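Quick one, T. Sequence first:
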Amino acid sequence: MDTTAYIFELLKIILPAVIVAGSVYLLIKQYFEKEQQRRLIELRLQSSKETLPIRLQAYERVTLLLERITPNNILVRLSSAGQTAPEFHRLLLQEIRAEFEHNLSQQLYMSPDAWDHVKQARENVLTMINKAYHALPSPQQARGTELAKRVLETLIAQEVDPTERALNVVKREAASLF
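Structure tokens:
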């Protein structure tokens, strides 16, 4: 047998084997890639099942925080009766800061944008209370009820609740989880 016939016979055997081996390799590679994608999807699904309730709870707590520091609610909750304006002012600021600090960890479950809105809402409320306090004719001699009245007047004059925007952002983000 001459060498060209030998090479031709060898190619008739090797070429189909290479084609079959290449096809098997591609099929196995595709199978493993799809299996890996399936496992990633399973992990993400499992993770979302575990984190979704935690995230929803965080949004609930932040919503409660914003509702509690809303001027209308905090003034009703913390009675100004029998207190001087400086005492009531200090109590309001202290309560807002305590509420915020109590919920600091919730930022882990929220977008940075939503958390920035929450921080801005807190600052807006603090600013509103501080401006109302300093707008009193003589803050050191004023009563706490006068400060509460001034804060409510400021709220009515602005026609916008300082926590409303943050509350809307938090609600919208929580709704997007579904």
